[in-house]
Design brief:
- The chain has about 425 residues and is an alpha/beta fold.
- It is built from 17 helices and 14 strands.
- The strands form 3 sheets. A 9-stranded mixed beta sheet has the order 1-2-6-5-4-3-7-8-9, with helices on both faces.
Length: about 425
């Protein structure tokens, strides 16, 4: 499906820019945007909303390129849904800087009439971040929730894959054209998404990414989401931009509880400030949307396989990513290896610390030498999420100290 007015809206954004608030004002002024184009410079000037420079840009921009873009979409079998189409999501139309149009590969679900949760976070996700992104998205999708994310490495990728794993619906919002091979490690995943949802963008199909496209893209992720979940966001994480936009748009913002490492500094600060609701599992999110979701029965977490976790590309690591049933593709990463050994015995501290069993085991294990959370988990054979809970308790009691890179030592020498 390609809108009759697509060529006019493509022409307008080519001249005025992709996140120009005047796009929505033009939509509100003209029942048929072709009248704006056909009216020429006189009409553009007397509509009363455009600057002199914008008028010049419209005059300098040829509409011929719009037809080239449309022809390319027909060749690729992409849809173009414009702001004045009935299929254009109201949740996207209602924001101040609504895009003029979106390019779609796949089938865009009716996002105005189903619960949607956006999941954002670091591209340098830890195993804890990946597992929770995957598991929470899986469970939410199992309950009929549509998962919205940006298709990036790390958290984004894990959340999309979690939704796909239970045959759920997910939408990937790209910060470039949907035919651009940027992040080709995720190409197979994007192809799978088009069969269960859609890959969308406001940029023409072959548009390459630019730094400012990603902040622009974030407003679309938040607009399409009834609630936004932040997972492992550092103090300067781009995910916090999306969280800010969600708050401005009146959306619920959630943050996964993490330890006191730099990896979680941004999301933890949002919880402390009261601008994000702390969560530990998917039900914490669903409980904020009573009667807005259709249940598919209880989720059995034993059904969830984490085999895919090792194949999820993460920025800064090296692993093998499965691309199809018969092919394995090497992705440039640097994988941290830990030897699984039995921890040396260490005397129990004499103080009556009133720790639970797991926290006591972790406390006895940690020494003055920095140790990574994954090594603690492997050596003690305790799941990462339980280790994290124990570490948080020990930090609160000022018994241990967190260091950059999710490393831990005893506090002040123990």
């Amino acid at each position: 499906m390609i809108s009759d007015n697509a060529k006019y809206w493509i022409w307008i954004v080519s001249a005025l820019g992709y996140d120009n608030i005047k796009v929505k004002r033009l939509y509100e002024l003209y029942t048929d945007i072709s009248e704006f184009y056909e009216g020429g410079e006189r009409e553009w000037r007397f509509c009363g909303i455009l600057s002199q420079r914008e008028l010049e840009k419209l005059s300098e921009t040829s509409i011929d390129n719009s037809q080239n873009v449309i022809d390319r979409c027909k060749q690729l079998n992409y849809s173009i849904i414009c702001i004045d189409d009935t299929l254009f999501p109201n949740c996207l139309r209602n924001i101040e800087d609504s895009p003029a149009l979106i390019y779609v590969n796949g089938h865009l679900p009716n996002l105005d009439n189903r619960l949607t949760i956006g999941v954002v976070g670091t591209r340098r996700a830890t195993k804890y971040g990946l597992e929770n992104s995957y598991k929470i998205a899986y469970a939410l999708a199992k309950y009929g929730v549509t998962i919205i994310s940006g298709g990036a490495l790390g958290v984004d990728c894990a959340s999309h894959r979690g939704a796909l794993a239970c045959d759920g619906v997910t939408v990937c919002v790209r910060g470039c054209g949907i035919n651009c091979d940027y992040l080709r490690d995720n190409m197979q995943m994007r192809n799978s998404i088009t069969k269960r949802g859609a890959v969308i963008s406001e940029y023409p199909p072959d548009e390459t990414p630019r730094n400012y496209y990603f902040p622009q893209r974030n407003r679309i992720i938040s607009a399409l989401s009834d609630g936004l979940l932040v997972i492992e966001a550092g103090a300067k994480s781009g995910s916090l931009i999306t969280a800010n936009l969600a708050l401005e748009q009146g959306k619920e913002v959630f943050a996964l509880l993490g330890n006191n490492s730099p990896q979680n500094e941004g999301s933890n600060n949002r919880i402390k400030e009261g601008t994000a609701i702390p969560i530990t599992d998917f039900m914490d999110i669903l409980n904020h949307f009573d009667n807005l979701y259709a249940t598919n029965g209880d989720v059995d977490f034993d059904e969830i396989s984490f085999e895919d976790i090792e194949a999820i590309p993460v920025k800064g690591k090296v692993m093998f990513a499965k691309t199809n049933d018969n092919d394995t593709k090497k992705v440039k990463v640097r994988k941290v290896k830990f030897e699984t050994v039995k921890p040396e015995s260490k005397p129990v501290h004499k103080e009556n610390l009133n720790l639970n069993t797991t926290a006591q085991m972790v406390y006895q294990y940690i020494t003055n030498e920095p140790v990574h959370i994954d090594k603690i988990s492997a050596d003690l054979q305790i799941p990462v999420y339980k280790v994290l809970t124990a570490l948080t308790e020990l930090e609160m009691k000022q018994l241990i100290q967190a260091h950059q890179g999710r490393l831990y030592t005893l506090k002040n020498g123990g």
